[in-house]
């Protein structure tokens, strides 16, 4: 009889312990979800300000650096959420609460991605203000611009990963149509990032022509290429031709000699001459390395 009572007591104790664990986990999940909803609301508010151009910063490179750090944190959070959703999908549970958790995490991912996109677009558009500051550090500004472009590539990659995650979630029978309209709207900004990444500008001319266009002078930098002291920091894009990096393999030329003023690594391109020793074009042999330092190409031609 005592043994039976002891067994009964142990079973009751086990059930009470399990119940407490379940309640504790449920309470913890509710608190986490409440915090997550607050974070999503905060991101949406900031996204609205960025989207409507109500967001401003002073012309200090330190503030741009802090914004890059914010985007880094967003990317880390995105990767963590991606892992979390995949973990939830591998569990045996498939009830309404689990589906709601997944949708909430994905909604957070969308908000993080949109926030990152807006911030990169903001910096890409406004970084030129840094060049107008007295004693501007053109080297540092150039590095900042390259980091902004690298971050744009990272965001585009994460956008592709979210697309793949959508497919995994849908394959598990979880409907995410409620989130897709907002996500499809956000992808517009991803497309703008792709355009920025893949667009370059070039101009060809003699030294005199480049000077007359305001492209080069004997001091300063150009469009953020601070280490190239022969280029004008205030040069206008008016005389420069936009090209698609992915689709451009060469630039046609007509002169006796050509020199690339902008920085492009040796081995990433070749200058081609005809039988009369006249230059005919610049061949871009390795696009990734050719455009790694700048999205601008300035060629000085000797005729």
Question: What this model shows, in words?
Answer:
This protein is of the alpha+beta class. The chain folds into two domains: 59-198, Methane Monooxygenase Hydroxylase, Chain G, domain 1; 206-302, no CATH class. It contains seven helices and seven strands; from the N terminus they run αααααβαβββββαβ. The protein has helices at residues 2-51, 61-89, 96-126, 138-171, 177-198, 207-212, 287-290; strands at residues 199-205, 241-244, 250-255, 257-260, 269-273, 279-284, 296-302. A hairpin with a 5-residue loop joins β5 (269-273) and β6 (279-284). Mean pLDDT is 82; it is low at 18-25 and 226-230.
Tally of alpha and pi helices: 7
Oligomer: single chain
Structural class call reads alpha+beta
Q: Could you spell the SSE succession in H and E letters?
A: HHHHHEHEEEEEHE
Q: Roughly what is the average pLDDT, rounded to an integer?
A: 82
CATH top-level class of the largest domain = Mainly Alpha
Main β-sheet description: 4 strands, mixed
Percentage of residues in strands: 5-15%
What would the keywords be for this entry?
four-stranded mixed sheet, elongated, 7 strands, alpha+beta, three-stranded antiparallel sheet, 7 helices, Methane Monooxygenase Hydroxylase, Chain G, domain 1, 303 residues, 2 domains
Write a concise synopsis of the structure shown.
The protein has helices spanning 2-51, 61-89, 96-126, 138-171, 177-198, 207-212, 287-290; strands at residues 199-205, 241-244, 250-255, 257-260, 269-273, 279-284, 296-302. The protein is of the alpha+beta class.
């Amino acid at each position: 009889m005592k043994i039976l009572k002891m067994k009964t007591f142990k079973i009751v104790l086990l059930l009470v312990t399990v119940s407490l664990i379940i309640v504790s986990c449920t309470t913890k999940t509710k608190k986490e979800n409440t915090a997550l909803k607050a974070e999503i609301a905060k991101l949406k508010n900031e996204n609205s300000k960025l989207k409507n151009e109500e967001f401003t910063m002073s012309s200090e490179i330190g503030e741009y650096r802090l914004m890059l750090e914010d985007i880094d944190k967003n990317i880390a959070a995105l990767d963590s959420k991606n892992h979390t959703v995949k973990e939830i999908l591998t569990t045996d549970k498939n009830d309404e609460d689990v589906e709601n958790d997944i949708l909430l995490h994905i909604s957070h991912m969308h908000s993080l991605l949109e926030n990152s996109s807006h911030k990169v677009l903001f910096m890409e558009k406004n970084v030129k203000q840094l060049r107008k500051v007295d004693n501007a550090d053109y080297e540092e500004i150039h590095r900042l611009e390259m980091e902004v472009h690298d971050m744009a590539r990272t965001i585009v990659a994460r956008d592709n990963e979210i697309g793949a995650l959508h497919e995994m979630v849908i394959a598990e029978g979880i409907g995410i149509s409620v989130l897709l309209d907002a996500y499809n709207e956000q992808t517009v900004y991803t497309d703008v990032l792709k355009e920025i990444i893949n667009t370059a500008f070039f101009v060809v001319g003699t030294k005199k022509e480049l000077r007359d266009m305001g492209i080069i002078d004997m001091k300063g930098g150009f469009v953020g290429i601070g280490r190239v002291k022969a280029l004008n920091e205030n040069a206008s894009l008016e005389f420069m031709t936009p090209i698609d990096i992915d689709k451009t393999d060469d630039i046609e030329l007509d002169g006796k000699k050509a020199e690339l003023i902008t920085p492009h690594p040796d081995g990433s391109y070749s200058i081609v001459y005809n039988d009369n020793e006249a230059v005919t074009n610049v061949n871009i042999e390795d696009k990734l390395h050719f455009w790694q330092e700048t999205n601008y190409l300035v060629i000085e031609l000797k005729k």
